[in-house]
Structure formats: C-alpha cells, structure tokens
Amino acid sequence: MLSNNYLSFGAEVNEAVKNKKPIVALESSIISHGMPYPTNLNTIFAVEDIIRKAGVTPATIAILEGVIKIGLTKEELAFLSKSKNIYKASERDIPFILLKKFHAATTTSASLAIASAAGIHVFATGGIGGVGPDATKTFDISTDLISIGKFPCITVCAGAKAFMDISATLEFLETHSIPVCVYCSKNFPLFYSRDSGIKIDWEVNHPREVADLFKIQLSIGQPGGMLVAVPIPFDDAIPENEIHEAISIALKEVKKMDIRGKEYTPKVLSLIKEITGSKSLDANVALIKHNAEIASEIAKSISEIMG
C-alpha cells in the first residue's frame, strides 16, 4: 500500500479529510487519454461541480512532476487536458513515475490504490477495463479488475468498456470473489447502452443499501472493494445493435493496425466515436456525469454510517 508520505492533498480535499466529509475520488486518464479537448476539460469541470452540488468533495487524482496529487486545481486539470507528455499510469507504474518525476494520468487501478491510501471509500469513473475480446490468445485482462478486489473502495461505473468481453469479465470478477451489483437493474450495463444481456445476481436500489453492503463487507473481514454498475440514463443510451455494429468495425480496424497495450483502449474509443458520429462521446459524457451523481449519494451514506 502507498505511504501517506507520497500523497499531496489539494486544499479542498485536505479540508474534507480533516473534517471527515464525504469524498468521491476521480481518475484523470479520462482527461488525458479518454476524450478530445475541450470535451475532456468541460466534462471534468462538470463532474466535479455535480459532486460539489451534492455536498461532497471531488478528488481528481493524478501524478504531476513525480508528486501524487489528490484534488487538482483548475490549472492542473487544464494542463492534463492539453499536454501531450502525460503518461497513462496503472497501479504498477506508480513507482516508476514517482522516481522519474514524470507527469501521469491515473487509470482506475492507480486511482484506487491512491484513493485507498488516502482513506477514500468511493471512486467514480466511466467504464472500467475488463477481459479483452481476444484474451484467450493475448491474456489481455485489465489490472482494473485486480485493483477493484484489492483495495477497500467502492467503484461506481457504467460497467466495463463496451468492447470488452463482458461475460468473461464477470466470470473473472466472480473467480476473484469481487462483489458485483447493478444499480436499479437486474442486467449488467454495456457502457454506452443499458443492457449487455447478462443478468446479475444482485441488484441495489438505494445509495444507503450500497453503503450498508460495504460496511458489512468490511466488518466480516472480506478484503477489497466492490463494483457498482450503473446503467446509462435512458435518454442518453445508444441502442445495443447500433453500438455492437460500431464496436465490431472498430475492433477489426485496430486488429489490422496491430495496436496493443495502453494505446489499445484510446484507439478503439476513438474509432467508435468516428463510426457513431460522436454519439459515443456524448453518451460517454452523460454516463460519467450520472455515475458522479450516484457516487456522491453513496459517499454521503458511507459518511453517515461509518463516520
């Protein structure tokens, strides 16, 4: 686990930590690698404002000049949104980034590690990484899944990225005993769409229910966190058949380009955006804002029952 010695809290987050106010952690990879400028900057500003209006403190996480920052200024967010020299850091990259004093945007796995070290119990993002579509050949399994089960933090998302193997992703989470539930639905979402066609054992219908579950999980000694999948709002969702077709075309194009590793997801997302005529980007923005709303209510409930 990261030492507090490496963490630097923004003024707003520092006050919230001292006064035990509810906090929602946010990743920064979506700013640097997930969306084009200026949509990326406008989105993170909007997401942070949504969280503040709910009476919760946003804590966007990044590494700047080798310093782990929890809670960024508007200037720092703007820098991440425009600079081309930003590494994409998963949990395993953190020591290297710190040593080299580089700038890095944090993925879900790195953000969870840092949020946990800071004592933050709720993390919101768009979609997590999962088991890749060719994992049987490439062993492409996102470290996000390991980190969700490793750190005591609730991950609120719209499911895995839609081009992942959703069935295999859920099997992986089950194999690793990671609790998974869907918010106000019995079907696991498909990121841009509401329904992946896969039913889930557990549905939750209120933020307090999520908080109670998490408290029980901690009290009985189950390690790690849990995944709360939130379907995109009806009005913002893309029909399943339309997004499946776009994903199929995008995956074929990426395969031709032989793109792998950290560049894989950004390239697939970019191609899906081109194919859907920006529908996917609009949906992405909408679901992230919605996740922030739900995460804020969960954070308030966590604060009420756990202090």
- Share of helical residues: 40-55%
Strand content: 5-15%
Average predicted local confidence, pLDDT? 94
- The overall number of domains is 1
Counting helices, strands and paired strands, the structural category is alpha/beta
What is the CATH homology-level superfamily? Indigoidine synthase domain
CATH fold-type name:
Indigoidine synthase fold
CATH domain class = Alpha Beta
Rg, alpha carbons: 18 Å
- Low-confidence sequence ranges: none
**What is the N-to-C order of secondary-structure elements (H for helix, E for strand)?**
EHEHHEEHEHEHEHHEHEEHEHHH
Keywords summarizing the entry:
Indigoidine synthase fold, 14% strand, globular, 307 residues, 13 helices, alpha/beta, 11 strands
3D architecture notes:
The chain has 307 residues and is an alpha/beta fold. It has one domain (4-237, 288-306): Indigoidine synthase domain (Indigoidine synthase fold, 3-Layer(aba) Sandwich), CATH 3.40.1790. The chain contains 13 helices and 11 strands. A hairpin with a 2-residue loop joins β3 and β4 (67-70). The longest helix has 28 residues, at 279-306. It is globular.
SSE diagram, text form:
Elements: E1 7-9, H1 11-18, E2 23-26, H2 29-34, H3 39-53, E3 57-64, E4 67-70, H4 74-82, E5 87-89, H5 94-100, E6 104-106, H6 108-117, E7 122-124, H7 135-138, H8 143-150, E8 154-157, H9 166-175, E9 180-183, E10 203-204, H10 207-219, E11 226-229, H11 240-257, H12 264-276, H13 279-306
Parallel strand pairs: 1-4, 2-3, 2-7, 5-6, 7-8, 8-11, 9-10, 9-11
Antiparallel strand pairs: 3-4, 3-6
